[in-house]
Structures are given as structure tokens and as C-alpha cells.
Design a protein that fits this description.
Blueprint: E1 7-11, H1 12-15, H2 19-30, E2 35-41, H3 48-53, E3 58-61, H4 63-67, H5 73-88, E4 92-96, H6 101-110, E5 114-116, H7 129-135, H8 140-144, H9 150-173, H10 189-208
Helix pairs in contact: 9-10
Length: 225
């Protein structure tokens, strides 16, 4: 093992508690070839200035955002934003908490390439790692999942908004929550996607010289403008 093989994880809350000191220690270690990852990213008080100067090449998104991404549009938005930061600052990004195949497929659709969680492997003794590396293969659905284009992403985000709205309504009807969810919120992605879909159908209908009901059926999601 050489120093270049070692990567140390630093909790975000610790890294930003004393940035000057932490940065100097990390820089000294990097001179020996030791790399760093910021762990549990998104749970502290991240500063773009600090992120710019900290000598860490990897951001590990906290599992709390990944775990509920299938049902919580705010967590999905957080993942989208952190991915944009990683690209802008030229950092690798790892999604923690990939618990199911569906989590993995959605992350791949968003543009994530690296992850960790039970859907990949559970904790194991050090002696088992080499054998696992020789035999493990990603699920076939992950091989086939390409990064989604803007239109497909709009549909995916709308789906998550729909699931969140339906779950919130069921909780309201069963008395688990006191307030009724805002199903017609103009800022939710489901409403935005439906509005785009309606405008796209109307445009296609005018192009065909008929009404929306008379035009050929459309597939996919509306195009952005």
C-alpha cells in the first residue's frame, strides 16, 4: 500500500468548524499523497468559499437525502443541487445510502456515477473484500440506465412530486397530519410539468390544424423552452 491508496473521510461539520486549521492539516497530508473526502455533505453549514479552498477531491452526500429521494421532492432537489456543485468545483461525488435498486437507477438517471449502500454491499470483514470484488457485478438495470435528458428528468421529478402529494393526502385523511397538502401548488414540479404538457399538446394540435383531442397521441414528457 502506498500513500496514494489512502483516502480519509472528514465530517462536513468538523471540516468547517475551523477551516484554516483543517485546510493546513489536509494540505500537509496531501503532500504525502493522502486524499480526502468530505463526509455527510449537506448536513452542516456548507460555504461555497470553504468548499472552494478545502483540498478534498470527493463529496459524499449524506444518506438522509438519498433515503427519501423517491418520495420527497425536496431531497431530490438537494441531490440535484449538490451534483451541480460537485461538477462546478470539479469534485467527485458519492451518494450514500443507496439501499435499493430503484435508488440506484434514479441516481444514475440524475447523473450520479458513484454510490454506497446496502444495494451494493453490506458491511463485511476485511478478509472478505477481495473475494467480493472478484464476484460482484452491478445489477443489469444499472448497466442499462443512461443519464436522463431534460425532458425525462422533468417527468421523473413530477412523479416524485405526485408520490409525495398522494402520501401527504393519505396521511391527512387518516389523521396523521393536521394540514392538507397543497396539491395545486404552482411551484411544485408536478404542476409545472402538467402545464408544460398542456402547452406542448396545444402547440402540436395547432400544427396539425385540429383540437388537442384530434392529434396523434404523444409519448414522453413536454419539451423545455
Amino acid at each position: 500500500m502506498t500513500p496514494g491508496d489512502l483516502e480519509l473521510e472528514v465530517l462536513e461539520t468538523n471540516a468547517f468548524s475551523d477551516v484554516t486549521h483543517v485546510t493546513s492539516v489536509m494540505q500537509a497530508c496531501r503532500e504525502f499523497g493522502v486524499d480526502f473526502a468530505i463526509d455527510d455533505f449537506g448536513t452542516g453549514y456548507s460555504s461555497l468559499t470553504y468548499l472552494r479552498h478545502l483540498p478534498a477531491s470527493v463529496l459524499k452526500v449524506d444518506q438522509s437525502f438519498v433515503r427519501d429521494m423517491l418520495d420527497d421532492p425536496e431531497d431530490l432537489t438537494m441531490l440535484e443541487g449538490v451534483l451541480g456543485l460537485a461538477v462546478a468545483f470539479r469534485r467527485e461525488i458519492v451518494a450514500e445510502g443507496v439501499e435499493t435498486l430503484l435508488h440506484g437507477r434514479l441516481l444514475l438517471a440524475m447523473g450520479y456515477q458513484l454510490g454506497q449502500g446496502y444495494a451494493i454491499a453490506r458491511p463485511m470483514p476485511a478478509g472478505s473484500i477481495l473475494g467480493w470484488l472478484d464476484t460482484w457485478r452491478p445489477d443489469a438495470s444499472w448497466y442499462q440506465r443512461q443519464r436522463a435528458g431534460p425532458e425525462e428528468l422533468e417527468a421523473i421529478y413530477a412523479m416524485v412530486d405526485h408520490r409525495a402529494c398522494a402520501a401527504g393526502m393519505l396521511q391527512y385523511l387518516s389523521g396523521e397530519r393536521p394540514d392538507r397538502p397543497k396539491a395545486n401548488c404552482t411551484h411544485c414540479r408536478l404542476a409545472q410539468w402538467l402545464a408544460l404538457l398542456g402547452r406542448d399538446q396545444a402547440r402540436r394540435a395547432r400544427a396539425w390544424g385540429g383540437s388537442p383531442g384530434s392529434m396523434p397521441p404523444t409519448t414522453g414528457s413536454p419539451k423545455r423552452r
